[in-house]
Design a protein that fits this description.
- The chain is α+β, with helices and mostly antiparallel strands.
- It has seven helices and eight strands, in the order H-H-H-E-E-E-E-H-H-E-E-E-E-H-H.
- It has helices at about 5-25, 35-40, 45-55, 100-120, 130-155, 210-230, 245-260, and strands spanning about 65, 70, 75-85, 85-95, 175, 180-185, 185-195, 200-205.
- A hairpin with a 2-residue loop joins strand 6 (about 180-185) and strand 7.
- The longest helix is centred in the middle third of the chain and has 25 residues, at about 130-155.
Length: about 260
């Protein structure tokens, strides 16, 4: 019987060992997340997974904001808006005149006003014919809600670049109320909205009322509002038949302009 050579046995054993190692390496998967976690390593997350873990990026702040209650001749009006992504997504009247003919006027005007706010993204909406008092009260409360929403947004992001205000258009709008001007027939107070260095809206927060004053106010205030926006100053003509109201309006308007920086 022929004996095996010692050198040959060593060579065969070495070859078998190498073959076994190569076989094990060929069977091991290229990556094993479960093993990596078990060893204390954390697998790299995808961008989508990281974003999901952080609650998403670029999520716009929003929520419901309720404006001030505005008293009208037929009852209180109060508007609530919902803001999302710096846009008004919903508008509703929390309070509106009711009882008697007011029910019909409210049912006619409020849905139209709500739609107009969402469509225009601004308090610059048309008054509904036949519901003037409700419409004006609605717009005042709406302006109050927009102001509150803008203030909350600026406080929430003090170090970030300010986002576009709700209902503010391309440029940030600023609302300023002038001082009360006392006239022979009652107080007059004007509020203006300034955007891009221009007066974009003017309205009378207070005006003489009662008796013939109601008629004179209804006649003069809309004209004075238009003149204030057109002129961009308090240098406007008095309305014939409403001299006291006109003069009080111009004084309060000048006060508002001064506060707004001219």
């Amino acid at each position: 019987m022929r004996k095996s050579h010692p050198v040959r046995r060593v060579v065969l054993a070495t070859a078998a060992t190498v073959s076994g190692v190569v076989l094990l390496l060929s069977l091991k998967p290229s990556s094993d997340p479960a093993s990596a976690q078990a060893g204390g390593a954390v697998p790299q997350q995808t961008a989508a997974a990281q974003e999901s873990a952080q609650g998403g990026t670029g999520a716009a702040a929003g929520g419901a904001v309720t404006g001030d209650v505005v008293q009208t001749q037929y009852g209180p009006v109060q508007v609530r808006i919902t803001v999302s992504g710096n846009k008004i997504t919903k508008a509703e009247a929390v309070q509106a005149p009711k009882g008697g003919e007011s029910d019909q006027k409210t049912a006619l005007s409020v849905p139209k006003l709500n739609q107009a706010v969402v469509a225009k993204q601004s308090p610059e909406i048309d008054t509904v014919s036949g519901a003037t008092y409700t419409s004006e009260g609605y717009k005042k409360s709406l302006q109050s809600a927009i102001d509150k929403a803008n203030q909350a947004a600026s406080q929430a992001q003090p170090s970030a670049q300010p986002s576009q205000p709700a209902g503010g258009g391309a440029a940030a709008a600023k609302t300023v109320t002038g001082a009360v001007s006392q006239t022979q027939y009652g107080p007059v107070q004007v509020r203006i909205t300034v955007s891009g260095g221009k007066v974009t809206k003017a309205e009378a927060v207070q005006a003489p009322k009662g008796g013939t004053s109601d008629q004179k106010t209804a006649l003069s205030i809309p004209k004075l509002n238009q003149e204030a926006v057109a002129a961009g100053s308090a240098d406007i003509d008095s309305v014939s038949g409403a001299t006291y109201t006109s003069e009080g309006y111009k004084k309060s308007l000048q006060s508002a302009l001064d506060q707004a920086g001219g």
